[in-house]
């Protein structure tokens, strides 16, 4: 019998929570369309509105200001829609590719903002760019709450206050923050944020866009029927939304798991340095969420290591952005001047335990020893 696998790639997708799976199965057993007025339709509508209430409570927003989408990429493209002809988009250099693509903003209306070597947005550089672009229109800043590769927490509130000084607005990718740190739309100072269900233990295929004010929605991206209060056309993905809502409830009811993940991360990082004293950890000097470690060891190729771990039954990813299974250079690490082609990301899922950490470290010791022998030969 093959050995059970150890899954440590939660930032790509979290394991589905059992409660979310049960909610999805229950939704699939009912034929109702939430736009129908009969009993089955009303049942479906109640399910969606319950999930909407849960998402709103997670980020401290009004339920009326939550719109469900097919995921974070759709939400990002919708959020990145100019609300005035003269708006200029400012994007941190470490954003997710769905944000770096700039949505509906023209390339000549988009400006990149650098980060420091610890991966944190350079606030002085942001102010300089805002001042330089003062005559070019209203600023819009796209800044993630937590980086998906390094786990570094960004100064969204400070940046938002600065952007608001210039009469601008802020769009926050909160995908990797949800369930891993407290979230408040008001405290972040963001005008729009978006979430992804499968990054907090819900199913793939659902996300949400949340606005601070009633008039904060961009122009509709999808047009057609009157779903989602005429904000987003298309029949709602009832089962995915049901699972999303329950996953959010589980996150809110089990906030103590953040402390447990912090302890597991410390165990992991101590073990990494015991195996290899030269281990580098990206963003180590900055505030990070508890579940993410991106580390590198000189002289080893990331793609080789990911395959080696996989063959040993451990799922991790490289620190590089991936598309269709192809590993490429990481724009995040380039922006941080983190010259490490061997970067490996370990992201702990909500159900991780000490055995997962110890199994990873045992496998890493074996791989490290084997590769060192190969180089010596």
TrEMBL record:
Cofactors: pyridoxal 5'-phosphate
Reactions performed catalytically: (sulfur carrier)-H + L-cysteine = (sulfur carrier)-SH + L-alanine
Record's keyword annotation contains Cytoplasm: no
Keyword Metal-binding tagged: yes
Domain Aminotransferase class V: 6-360
Gene Ontology molecular function: cysteine desulfurase activity; iron-sulfur cluster binding; metal ion binding
InterPro entries noted in UniProt: Aminotrans_V_dom, Cysteine_dSase, PyrdxlP-dep_Trfase, PyrdxlP-dep_Trfase_major, PyrdxlP-dep_Trfase_small
Top-level division of the source organism's lineage: Bacteria
Keywords noted in UniProt: Iron, Iron-sulfur, Metal-binding, Pyridoxal phosphate, Transferase
Biological role: Catalyzes the removal of elemental sulfur atoms from cysteine to produce alanine. Seems to participate in the biosynthesis of the nitrogenase metalloclusters by providing the inorganic sulfur required for the Fe-S core formation.
Family under the similarity heading: Belongs to the class-V pyridoxal-phosphate-dependent aminotransferase family. NifS/IscS subfamily.
Protein's recorded name: Cysteine desulfurase
Organism: Afifella marina DSM 2698
Highest classification ranks of the organism: Bacteria, Pseudomonadati, Pseudomonadota, Alphaproteobacteria, Hyphomicrobiales
């Amino acid at each position: 019998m093959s050995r059970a696998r150890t899954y440590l790639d939660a930032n790509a997708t979290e394991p589905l929570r059992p409660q979310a799976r049960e909610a999805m199965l229950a939704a699939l057993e009912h034929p109702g369309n939430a736009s129908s007025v009969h009993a089955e339709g009303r049942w479906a509508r109640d399910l969606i509105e319950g999930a909407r209430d849960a998402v709103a409570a997670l980020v401290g927003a009004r339920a009326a200001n939550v719109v469900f989408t097919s995921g974070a990429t759709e939400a990002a493209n919708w959020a990145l829609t100019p609300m005035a002809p003269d708006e200029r988009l400012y994007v941190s250099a470490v954003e997710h590719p769905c944000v770096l693509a700039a949505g509906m903003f023209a390339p000549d209306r988009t400006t990149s903002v650098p980060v420091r070597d610890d991966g944190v947005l350079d606030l002085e550089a942001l102010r300089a760019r805002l001042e330089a672009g003062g005559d070019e229109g209203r600023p819009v800043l796209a800044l993630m709450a937590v980086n998906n590769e390094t786990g570094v927490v960004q100064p969204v509130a400070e940046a938002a206050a600065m952007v608001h000084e210039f009469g601008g607005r802020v769009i926050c990718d909160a995908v990797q923050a949800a369930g891993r740190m407290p979230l408040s739309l008001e405290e972040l100072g963001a005008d729009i944020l978006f979430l992804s269900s499968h990054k907090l233990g819900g199913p793939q295929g659902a996300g949400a866009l949340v606005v601070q004010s009633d008039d904060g929605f961009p122009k509709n991206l999808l047009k057609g029927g009157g779903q989602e209060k005429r904000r987003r056309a298309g029949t709602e993905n009832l089962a995915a939304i049901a699972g999303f809502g329950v996953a959010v409830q589980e996150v809110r009811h089990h906030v103590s798991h953040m402390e447990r993940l912090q302890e597991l991360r410390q165990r992991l990082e101590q073990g990494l340095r015991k195996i290899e004293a030269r281990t580098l950890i990206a963003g180590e000097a900055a505030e990070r969420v508890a579940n993410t470690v991106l580390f590198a060891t000189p002289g080893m190729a990331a793609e080789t290591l990911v395959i080696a771990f996989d063959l040993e039954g451990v799922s991790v990813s490289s620190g590089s952005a991936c598309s269709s299974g192809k590993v490429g250079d990481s724009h995040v690490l380039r922006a941080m001047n983190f010259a490490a082609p061997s970067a490996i990301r370990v992201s702990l899922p909500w159900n991780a335990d000490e055995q997962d950490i110890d199994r990873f470290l045992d496998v890493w010791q074996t791989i490290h020893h084997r590769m060192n022998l190969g180089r010596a030969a």
